[in-house]
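Quick board copy: two proteins, each given as sequence then tokens.
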Amino acid sequence: MTQNWSRTLIVSLSLALCLAFILPQHTTRAQDDDAPSMLFDVISDECNALIDLYFPDLETLLTRTDINSTTFFFDSFALIRSTPVLQTTQWWPQDSPAFGNLLRYHIVSPGYYPTALLFSSGISVLPTNYTPASLGNRPQRLVFTRNATTGGLRVNGVASPRQFVVPNGVAHDIHDSVLIPPLMSIVGVLNNLTASTSTFLTLLNQAGLNSTIAADGGFTVFAPTNAAFNALQQNNPSTYQAIISSPAILLQVLNYHISQDLFYVGEPGSASTISTLAGSNITVSNTTGILMVANSSLISANNLARNGVVHLATSVLFPPGFQINLRTVLNGVNATVFVKQMDAANLSSLLNDTTSNHTVFAPQDSYFGNMSSSVNLSADLLSYHVVDNYLMLANLTDGMLLKSHLTLVSLGGNNQVLKVSIQNGTTYINNQAIRLPDRVATNGVVQILTGPLTLPPNATAVLRGDPTFSSLLSLLMTAVGTLPNATNTVSPTPTPPMNGTTTSPSPTNATNTMSPTPFMNGTTSVSPMPMNGTSPMVSRPPTTSGTVSPAPMNSTSAPMTSGSPSMNATTTVSPSPTPANSTRALVRSTSDNDAIDHVLRAVNDTAETIGDDVDRFFGVTLFAPSNSAIANLSAAVLSYLGSPRAASDLFNLIEYHLVPMQNGTILYSTNIPSGVSNYTTLDGESLSINKPSNASMGPIVLNGQARVTRADNLTAEGVIHTIDTFLFPPSWAWDLRKVLISLNCTTFLDLVTAANLTYLLTPNARNNYTLFAPTNAAFNNLTMMPSGDALRRIIMYHFVAGTYMRSNLSDGQLLTTILPADDQVDAQVVKVTVTGQQVRINTINTTSFDNTAVNGVVHTLSSVLVPPTSILQILKSTPQFSMFYSFVMSAGLNTILESGEYTVFVPTNEAMLYMNEYTRQFLVRPSALPYLFNVIAQHIIPQLVMVQQLPQGASTLTSYNNLTVSILRSSTNTFSLNNAAANITATNIIASNGVVHTINRVLNWTALYDFTLVRTLYQVGATRFVDALDQANMTSTFIVPNSSYTVFTPTNDAFPLVLPTGSGLVNLIKLHYVNGYHVTANMYDGELEITTLFQPTLNGYQRLKISDTSSYLGITAGGSQAEIIIPDQVVYNGKGAVHVIDRILTLPGNILSLLPSNSTLLSLINLSASNSLYNTNGITVLMPSENAFQSLSDGVLTYLQASNTQSLADLNDILSHFVLKQLLYSDNMTSVAQQYVSNLGDSVSLAEIHSDTGASIIKASTTGRPDSDATSTRIDLLASNGVAHELDQVLFPNNFYFTIEKVMTILSSGKFAYYMEKAGQSDFLDSTNDDPFTILIPTDAAFNTDVPDLDRLQRNELVKMMQNHVIQGSVILTPGMEDLESWNNRKLLISTDDLSNYLTVNLEGNVLPSHVAVVVGGPYICSNGVVYQVSHVVKREGNSELQVGTVASLILVCFLFFLFVVSLGTYILNWYRRSAYESV
């Protein structure tokens, strides 16, 4: 309420003072002025001296006698009427500089322009004294016209009925209005004239000039009318089309209509030549009585704007020398880089040609970005962008070929062509989309592309860039790899040329690697057309009936050939004669990585050697099989063609897909005649092409089977047509040699060649053969092969006369090889073994079957067929038996396996690894030889046992060391040994002295010897622990086999590199050694294990603690925590157990080391200097947790940390009470509470119970103290000098209670205690627990500010005031408590502060908020009450000051209202006097 009164007073006083000051001054000036004699007098009389009052500089101007001025004035009523308008513009308030500018707009100085002079001189525009920044600080103008009816003067359309001519000028009266300077920009003026200028305004916006002419600075705009543009469109449509379609031309033309010179029609001294934004001048003339600007007349002039002026023109203005040919259009659409390149290449005549029309495909400058200055396009590439005739977008159809102006030697002097394609409504020229179509010139048309065209590259680059031909390209790389100076490295697709130096431009009809620069001018981006590999063109699926692919052969199969199509009604076309210019230079200069060029080069070189006319390889046509065409070949043929061994054959096949230029004509699809024609390919064989007379009748077909699915992929040498079937010439056949190559049996093929037996592979051989051919992988395990006759015998051992398919082979079948009989080795027969789907030849697995050829069949083998050898040699030569062979040698069993007759079950290396590394290490120790002998000997059976001889079900065999080996043969003919301890994985490996079967496990190795501790440690890999036992001499003296024990052994990696020595090493071992047999099944979380390490600081043996969770089993000695990673390794029939842990156990620190550095308990111990007590040996500490301290009631912890004499004494007692001077682990306690004496002497009750989950919990309390009851949160925290149990509560001794008196020691309450004692009220502060009180203690600062003279207060008043702070009982204050009284029966009000939300205390009846006591501390819960600290003294206050303040405020308001009434009366009186003066 006080604030509202203040605001009212300020507003009223301000209004009164303003009216009292302003109104008398205006009235005085009006009364003092006499008859007008100067301009200023006229204005003062008519405008009430406002100019003089606010703008004395204008007064000075209008009273000068040395210059004449012309002014236009208005009366005060006009100003008042205009005030709503002015207030909505920038010209208000009237005391601002803006209002001064408004007045200056009414003044022309210097200048003397009475009405008669204006009419007689033809002046229609004058500059004013207002020079706004929007006109570049140049004068804003006034426009004068003559009223057609009255003949009177009009200024900006406002009538001026009279004028006053005075010695220093003339004043025109416009009392009805105020002249307001133009507010709209030129764009706004044009919008107001939109009926006449809408076309011009639209084009300005399109050219981005609307923002230019809307900006400050001052512009003159000659705006052609809509009729002017309509006339241009009708009379010169190509010019009109060029203007609206070319941003640059449009900008050039529009800039010619805009000037930064200010030109006003009818202004004295205006210029006749005006510069324009286009850079050329424009001339204004009036020779015929009609005002002309350039070639146009003005029909509406002087349309004023805030930032200039607009004149309407009857024609569109063009800069001098303006014309629109192809050059102009290109420049106009921002293709200036292309134009400059054409000029530099001496090709400008194509752009300026007036005798013929051309179509130019060109990129815009934005494509080149900041590289525009360094672009250097070759003349060839530029010529490739120009074609003859006038081709609009509508004239371009899908698949059309356009002949460019580029002629190439590589094309036999033919013109290189462009290919049109239309995808998803977008037209593409090669791989560039037409971005801006149909930019018309008088000599042609421009089609703007997304980027420059690239010259079609050589055929290899096209293939490389198109994923459709990746398979063909791979075959080409294989083929050219055998040519001289050729490499198999495929260079990356080159970057499109930015100059004339790039030798291999990116493909035109292949995947484009040249991404156009993103458009810069806000145009819609047109993505380049998908290239050949991703084109959505749909190809018909290949027909399998006509596809040439090898079929499986049998003994009677004829050689496979590709049949020639019917030649009926065909036309044979001979290769074309040699062109005048040779292509040899072109072929020689290409990269060695260009595969097609390598083909051409090789053909040329071959032709040279036979004297052929070699220069005939211009305009080459490649019929390129697609990926799917190659994928449709059989897997065998694909494998063959992909082999480097087939490169020569593959080379010939590639030649069969190449057709040279015919009769000077490249075989574009449009040049192939309808019907069937025969052509000679580069390999000299005939190719038939059948083209339907109508495209709707189907595609072009080659050899009656391969269809052209995509035609006319342009290349530097000619053209590529995609076909759906791979072509084979008539002479090609699929024989055994090709089959071997396809199966990757090339090593065997080389050996056949080395043995001079290749005649066996050719179709001209006398017989068909069945060939058992080892794969290349079969030779990986052979270090060498014999030579000469020995090699020849081995090779012939793989050939069987006749054709035997897989279906002809049966188990036990003997096949006679072509190896002649020999007296020493009966090796001419091989044995077939069939087990399910598996077929073996002798003991060798077959890996594939029925690989047919025209002269036989091939079955591949996993190994080479060789004469049998001894078992020992088989073990030695077979890599997967190397570990078993090593054990055989170590056990001394090698001699028996060199002769005699044995069956050996051989564990593979993988099976041997199932015995862990340390067991294997143990077995090769000299002392373990008997064990090793028994392990190996049980795998040797002294008789020949073929698995086919074993009966179904169980049977037994006797091993070399007289152990029984049981064998179980299942109904599915699988074999297992010794009750499935091992399975037979490979059978019947024939040797000269028996047979070998492989198994997947070592037989019974864990049961052959009794494992002592040392052997067990070896078994689990703990050899470093064995080393430690040896080094400490504890192997036999400390480890007693007949006693029960448990060892926690660290892994080898956990041991330090250097072991400790002496007692340190002994203690380390003892820490890991526990008496008794403990397996993990009997361990539980928190269990304590007693080690054999005696600790003097514990007065007993060090313990280990088990940690058992759902995911973790570990153990600790109190130091490091180790995880049991290999549990329960039983030693010596259950006498001992070994558990492998992942780290070495370390001894714990003392009790204090268990506490974090920031723990409350540690800080209290340090504060009380009780460290020595906690370092005592053999103690138990009942350690409160951090939460226990933090959950103490307010003030208790603060008191304990206070460091005063009383608090330190209490703290020492409490810390001493936590310590029991005996070692008490949880397993020493019982479920019935037992009494123990603390170091302080109090009795402490302890009991161990179990939670619902079975975990051990300790319950603790101080005997005789009912408020003491704690539960453990962690137990058995091991330390070097004892054990600690963490509790959830602080156990206080019997001699400590937190009282009101102790609270006062930590609060700022000295004055409260003083005045309580002075008032005789100290008994309230040391009351007993049975008679509690609640005390409100003000801060010492509160006494200083609230009751500074309290010492002079009478004692009975002091007693009342101090009793205001005492409440009976222990009370927790809450807002809104009722019936709460102080000790002296005064009612206390409890509420919350509006701002802080703190509790507040006040006496009932107090009204001033300054004495409300805010609770700033507490509640402090004490044993004898509750304490709160408050911010003010609780006392009673009066309200007389409020009454006096209110009366004074009312008197002041009344006085100010009186002043306001007097001022208002004065204003009314002055207004009346002025009205009377004006009437006079």
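And the next:
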Amino acid sequence: MGKGKPRAVEKGVLGQNLSLFSSSSSASSSSGSLHVPSAPVYYPNEEEFKDPLEYIYKIRPEAEPYGICKIVPPNNWKPPFALNLENFSFPTKTQAIHQLQVRPASCDSKTFELEYNRFLEEHCGKKLKRRVIFEGDELDLCKLFNGVKRFGGYDKVVKEKKWGEVSRFVRSGRKITECAKHVLCQLYQEHLYDYEEYYNRLNKGVARGCKRGLRKCKKSDDGMEFSRSKRRRKNNDGEKVKVCNKVEEEEEHDQICEQCRSGLHGEVMLLCDRCNKGWHIYCLSPPLKQVPPGNWYCFECLNSDKDTFGFVPGKRFTVEAFRRLADRAKRRWFGSGSTSRVQMEKKFWEIVEGSAGDVEVMYGSDLDTSVYGSGFPRVNDQRPESVEANLWDEYCGSPWNLNNLPKLKGSMLQAVHHNITGVMVPWLYVGMLFSSFCWHFEDHCFYSMNYLHWGEPKCWYSVPGSEADAFEKVMRSSLPDLFDAQPDLLFQLVTMLNPSVLQDNRVPVYTVLQEPGNFVITFPKSYHGGFNFGLNCAEAVNFAPADWLPYGGFGAELYKTYHKTAVLSHEELLCVVAKGDFDSKASPHIKKEMRRIYTKEKSWRERIWRSGIIKSSPMPLRKCPEYVGTEEDPACIICKQYLYLSAVVCHCRPSAFVCLEHWERICECKSRRRRLLYRHTLAELSDLVLASDSDRFEERSPSNDLRRQISCSNELNVLTKKVKGGHVSLAELAEQWLSRANKFFQHPYLGDACATLLKEAEQFLWAGPEMDPVRDMVKSLNAAQKWAGGIRDCLFKVQNWSSGHSCDLERVPLEYIAELLNNDPVPCNEPGHLMLKKCADEAWCLAQEIDSALSSCSEISVLESLYSRFSDLPIYIKESKKLSKKISSAKIWIDRAKKCISETQSAAVDIDILYKLKSEMSELQIQLPETELLLDLVRKAESCQSQCKEILKAPFSLKNVEVLLQEFKNFTVNIPELMLLKQCHINAVSWISRCNDVLVNLHEQEDQDKVVNELNCLLKDAASLRIQVDELPLVELELKKACCRVKVLKARDMKMPLDFIQELMMEAFVLQIEKEKLFVDLSGVIAAVRCWEERATKLLAQEAQMLDFEEIIRTSADIPVLLPLLDDIKDAVAMAKSWLENSAPFLVSSSSMVSGSVSSLKLEVLKELVSHSKLLKISLDERRMLDMVLKNCDEWQQDANSALQDARCILSTDDIDDGKNGCLFGKVEHLATKMESITKAGLSLNFDFAEIPKLQNACSMLRWCSRALSFCTCAPSLEVDAQKPTMQHIQRHMKEGLAMSIPPEDYIWQKLAELKDIGLQWADHAKKVDNTLPIVFKFCYCSIIWCFLFCGQVATDSGALGLDKVFELISEGENLPIYLEKELKLLRARSMLYCICRKPFDSRVKVACKLCGEWYHIDCIKLLTPPKIYFCAACEPQTEGLSVSTSAKSVEPKTPSPRHTKSRKKPGETESNVMLKMLAFENHSNVFIHSSGIDQLGWQNRKPLRRAAKKRTELKILSQFFHRQGK
């Protein structure tokens, strides 16, 4: 099922381009070890991919039988991931994977113990007095019972040997032995086997005729005694209390249902036998059909909070933290290498089945994307900078974007208005390895679509919706204890079951492996589950095409059965969709489901009508009926379902609502007191059914409508109910009511009669189209009731107003009266109609007069007269409001105008107020006496304003302003332009006064900065003046003088350039202030500067001493001017000091310098310093000293190069003598000594000469040649073996020569090679004679160590070579120019003789004398086996008096060995100088003992050894190893 593979199957029903990839071979290979076949995988092309609902509609016939399928988008569909992973954090849930299947039921042990003790008392006549112990711990009988029940009961557990699995429920995490299994079986048989039989019979028993209040108990067929009343109370001892009927009637409502909160219907009320809480049997989830036999316990008492299983909230993670957690988990299970799907699936189901230990993982599931964000782009989300705007917009509107999918055209969820998370709003999932989604199907059996954004794959399993019942049956049979404790277990989404179990029970299961970028579709009612292979991020949402509707109805019924609150109202969704627009594909599904809903609703409404519920009323209209969920409907208190179409209520419980199926459960009132609430009549529902037909747009003929009505009428004719005297149909009752209603309109209107008719009509209005005449009549009655009521209400208000009660009643609007009177014909016969018309005519006349007065320019007195007439009228005229407003406005205007005209204070009246009064005067259109006075005031104000504007147009003089201000001095109108002129005049006068104060004695003030600031302020203020002033030029001149003084003061305080000082003096001459003291002092400074400049020029022209330069620098500090040549003087001094500082290391005396005490100096630096000294402008003695140092360095380099040239001549010459006369040797030694002296002299100079490494290398090479020549000229001498070079010396010296890169063709190298070859040839010859095998045998016994030391070498010739030949070879080796120590030592050892046979050392078995240590062949001394302790004949006299025990008989000759003439060991000498070697054996039957020789003696004579007696121990265990080699 990989990407890019060719399409495997082409289905004609799916179209030519629709492809499916699925085969049995791929299924078996890709499904892992579970052998689960694969679901189909589809690869749509770009054209097919445009419309997801259309594509799913095409593949549904083929894919739906699998319950699931995978869709791989085209390659070009790659939406960007919209979330910012750096800032994204999310909550998680903890999943105990090992408990998804293998977990004990959450049963309360106390409830089980109570029921078990009751069983023992009632059926066994005993009590459980002692605890049951199993392996040292108390055995939980409740868990044991549920564990056996999980695996099919005792008999099945014994037959299938499941006691090991049962033990996991009793003691999780602990192993159980075979013996413990047997004990557990015996304990169950002893304590619980009888209870199991009782429990099974109890569940199969059926209680008959269970009535409330019955006290007796009836024996069942099995002899069990069942309680016939669950309402009986218990005393403290648990015994049932007998009460009389009277007491029970008084306690009729002593218990209420915990579900519906009602104490009614006690006959079906169950009381928990532990907590005494009550539930109706129809309020349980799922409901019971009858009272169960035996004791009954509620789910709260059956289930223990301690053992309740669920996914508990975990930590909040960032993506990076969650990634680390997921990586650690994966490495823990599978390491860092790659893992196959088979391994992961196998390990997951091992964990689920409890065989892999406890495993907990974290899962970021069900994350609301409206809170945490969606992985798909959305319009209102912020676009990441890395995503282009066009790409973002494209995927924002993509139909495959899960945020858009539920609302696509053709989706039934288009009408859902509110955002339901998971249904309308996608959920986000962030998973890790083994995080799971358990077996379930979607809410309301919706389709679901899941998209994997990124990460590891997700493994899905699915059971088709057609096999849902079989799946549930297998789940219940496999996990009976869990379903007994939680009947709604599959709603919890916390349980898994191995697919192999389902397959074993012939339930088809299919699988899909979802990879990043893939969609997975689950079909309605299909159970699905799965787990993640690692860290990943997915997003899922529900959707509902039209073919979902039947499944939605099934889901709604399932919610009702289990009393679960639905996500939305299925009936509301269906009706809203049926009213809207839909295509022809959806029409059959909508029609079929609407027909089902209509039939069901019709049946229940008819049933409750027959039961006596005749009151009905429509539900309130919705504000937005075209959307679902805008307003929440009430829910049934029994089944918790939304009541959209209808409900039943009763006045005794106004806040309680029930559905039609539970109408009897709302209360115990009589049926006539209850009321049916309906949203649509059956006629409206029937129209919706017809409208859902695909031919709904075709015009239907009246004959078809008539046939439909007749058909419905015929059906309702059958609808009858019992009445006194027989039966009556709904149609007959309707005809009787219509007859009474027609008679009602023939008489004067009676309110009570009308209300009675409307109340009686309620039982007909809910019905079908045959009741349309009744509905029409009801509309007429409602209209008559409303019209007559309006007439009477208006007359009542008019009469009460006329009688003086106007303060308590509001007047009737004339428009409302006109609306009532304009009805033609009138709805009914109401006598008050004419009286009200008379009053209305008077009001209409007054309204016309008011309109005329308002439209013309009338006097105010006329308006006030009309308003007075209206005040006495009992009818409200809307024109009166305009009249009142106009009169009020006129009065307000008159008051404001009089105030402006009579004002005497200057500028008290704003000119805008005058203009506003003038404008309002024209709008009022009323004749007023104050109009002319106000217009005169306005004209005068406009004249003043015009003159002010004329003056303000151009600069003006102070005199003109003063004339205008005098003219309008006390004018009462406030004109802005006049106020501006007044303010300008005030500002000008104030500025002139300030200017006169500032210009007094400016040059005498010390703080000239303050003077400049004051003058600048004056100029700035003058710029803002709109009046011309004459003092302005004088202020500007004084500001220039003050600025010049400020510059001089600054030049005096800080050094300025000479040019700047001279410019200041020129500026002073221009301003004629050069005679001021400040500028006279400045002239003296200029003269001092000129004198200093002349002296500095002379110093720079000739090389003066350092003191002269320093003196002129000190003199410059007293001159407050920047001197041009001062920088040159300072640069010359700085350059000289820097040169001296850099030259200091080179000027150190050579006598005081120790070689290597300081770092080496650079000769290049020295040369550079000497070169730079020529650029100095100061005379220095150090310059000559540095020249001398450079001269010494040059002379040393010449000597070094000469010595190197001599060395090259010696090393490269070809005419070299044999070295025996020592001429070459002397030259090399002399030149090496000379080079060492030169090197020492160069190091003493402390310069990094390049010649020093060359000298050292050449000296080393000469020393190597000198030593090599000494090796070659060394004469052989027996006395000076230690002075001759060894082979190791020559080899080491040649290795050193290789390191020095001595060429092989070098003469000295060739001499060394010849010397080496001579030594190697003689050594090879010696080895042929003395090719030996070293052996040591060492053994210990009873902590006493005895070593057989065979010190020496065993000659291969066994003494065949004569000693004279050996001696000649030794003499030849000693005369060689090389000292071969090892070979000579071996030959000297070869010349030594042993035993009485005087043979060289060989491999024959020997024995050593305990005293002298001499070795003897055991065959030479006539011994059969080696003795424990042996004394030779020479040492035997010394052993007299010693008790010697031997294990072998000695027949050794008495003649001692010649070697016993002297002691073999010196006093104090031990055997530590003897080399120890291990005994080597060849096989199990041949073990050889080899002696070793003595390697520390001279070859000419073996020094005698003195032996010390040692006690030998008996080594019987090793006796078998002592035999000769040839045996």
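Board note added afterward: The chain has a mean pLDDT of 76.
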